[in-house]
Specification:
Length: 299
């Protein structure tokens, strides 16, 4: 029997990893394998999902829909050779990825015999959607989805959320659900479009984005870190990683998306090493200077 595949797409910081973790921890009783693609060589999302899935494989260094198509297919074949075989495979695309290439890759006839694309889920940041609607990558991610999940709805008013749902429904004609009330896995597997037409166009390239990475094996000062990130935030689309602060035993998970930044205790077992990924528009980037500022914290 062919194993179903859920593909989760969405722009940088939309809430994909949060959704996948919620899904994996929902008491489904299934053996689930996760394939996670991150933009850069430090795969933060694979670490975040690692405690929730049977097996997590991280694909690194770029856009899963372009340069990593071969890696995706090889990884799927590896997953299908596991014993016991997973009952569901979840593929999380990078926030810079166009799902067109993933869909095309999953139409490989050899893969289709053992694993089939079932549903493409697009996670939409309700606080950012109106700003992103003219973005060609964002549009492609939404159009490539069978169902849209509105994330961060609790940060919007009921009126704004209702208006957004109406606009998305008219513009894209997709099923729209609230992430806070996400359906069960079995329900999601039934939500694929019966008339889905697999796109044959070239995927939107990811060369508009640039990334930088910072790794430090020591601990840093919390106040100094907050000051640096306050300076860097206006020029960044996304930042995420694990930070160790002086005087604190726990590793902390730092996430920045747009003008929102959070610090939370990381799960047990995270390596006690500072690891941070920064993502920005290539033509607006000052990432070398950003990494330089972070390195000044290494004292």
């Amino acid at each position: 029997m062919s194993v179903p595949i859920l593909v989760v797409t969405g722009f940088l910081g939309a809430g994909k990893t949060t959704f996948i973790n919620t899904l994996l921890q929902s008491g489904h009783g299934l053996r689930i394998a996760a394939i996670v693609n991150d933009f850069g060589s430090i795969n933060i999302d694979a670490t975040l999902i690692g405690t929730s899935a049977e097996g997590v494989i991280g694909l690194k260094n770029g856009c899963i829909c372009c340069s990593l198509q071969g890696d995706l297919l090889r990884t799927l074949r590896t997953v299908m050779r596991q014993t016991p075989v997973p009952e569901l495979i979840v593929v999380e695309a990078s926030g810079v990825a166009d799902p067109t290439g993933i869909i095309q890759s999953l139409m490989d006839p050899v893969i289709w015999q053992s694993a089939r694309l079932q549903t493409v889920i697009g996670v939409v940041d309700a606080t950012d959607a109106l700003h992103r609607m003219e973005d060609p990558l964002w549009q492609t991610q939404v159009r490539g989805s069978d169902v849209l999940l509105l994330a961060k709805g609790d940060c919007s008013t009921a009126e704004a959320l209702s208006a957004l749902r109406s606009r998305l429904s008219v513009a894209f004609r997709r099923t729209i659900l609230d992430l806070s009330e996400a359906p069960s896995i079995s329900a999601l597997l039934e939500l694929q479009e019966t008339n889905r037409s697999f796109p044959r166009t070239n995927p939107v390239p990811d060369n508009r984005f640039a990334h930088a990475e910072w790794i430090y094996e020591g601990a840093i000062d919390l106040g100094a870190f907050q000051k640096v990130m306050g300076q860097l935030a206006p020029g960044l689309l996304r930042a995420k990683g694990f930070i160790r602060f002086k005087g604190q035993a726990d590793m902390m998970l730092f996430q920045l998306s747009g003008n929102r930044a959070t610090l939370a205790r990381a799960e047990d077992g995270v390596d006690p090493v500072c690891r941070l990924v920064l993502i920005a528009e290539r033509d607006k980037t000052g990432l070398d200077e950003a990494v330089g500022l972070l390195r000044r914290l290494e004292t």
